[in-house]
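Fill in residues.
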C-alpha cells in the first residue's frame, strides 16, 4: 500500500538556503523584463524526521527587486520539480477560492443554505 502524498511548506531556513546557494546569486547581464524562475530538488532530513525527504526549492527573480523570492516544498511526489510547484500553486488557488466562499457565507448571516443562496444572487445583480 502506497503512503499518502503529503507535503509541508517550509520557511526559508539558512540550512536549506545553503543547499541552493548557486541559485541565489544574481543572474549576470541586464535585468530581464520578466520573472526568472529556477527550481532545485534535493534530499533533506531534519532532526525530528525518521528519514530524508524530498525538498523542492523555487527561486524567483522579479524585475526591479533586489533579492529573490524563495520557497520550499517538502513532498513525496516523484514528478519533476516544475510540475510539483505547479500542482501546489493550483492547490493554493483552490484553497483561496474556498476561503472566499466561506467569507461570503459568513457575510450573509442567514440561517439556511437556501436563504444564503438567494441573498448572494440578489447581491450579485
Amino acid at each position: 500500500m502506497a503512503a499518502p502524498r503529503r507535503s509541508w511548506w517550509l520557511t526559508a531556513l539558512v540550512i536549506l538556503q545553503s543547499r541552493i546557494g548557486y541559485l541565489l546569486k544574481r543572474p549576470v547581464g541586464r535585468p530581464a523584463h520578466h520573472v526568472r524562475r529556477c527550481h532545485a530538488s534535493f534530499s533533506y532530513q531534519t532532526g525530528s524526521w525518521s528519514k530524508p525527504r524530498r525538498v523542492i526549492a523555487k527561486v524567483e527573480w522579479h524585475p526591479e527587486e533586489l533579492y529573490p523570492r524563495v520557497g520550499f516544498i517538502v513532498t513525496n511526489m516523484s514528478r519533476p520539480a516544475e510540475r510539483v510547484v505547479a500542482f501546489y500553486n493550483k492547490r493554493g488557488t483552490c484553497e483561496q477560492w474556498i476561503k472566499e466562499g466561506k467569507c461570503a457565507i459568513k457575510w450573509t448571516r442567514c440561517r439556511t443554505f437556501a436563504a444564503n443562496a438567494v441573498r448572494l444572487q440578489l447581491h450579485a445583480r
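Residues 24 and 61 are 9 Å apart (CA to CA).
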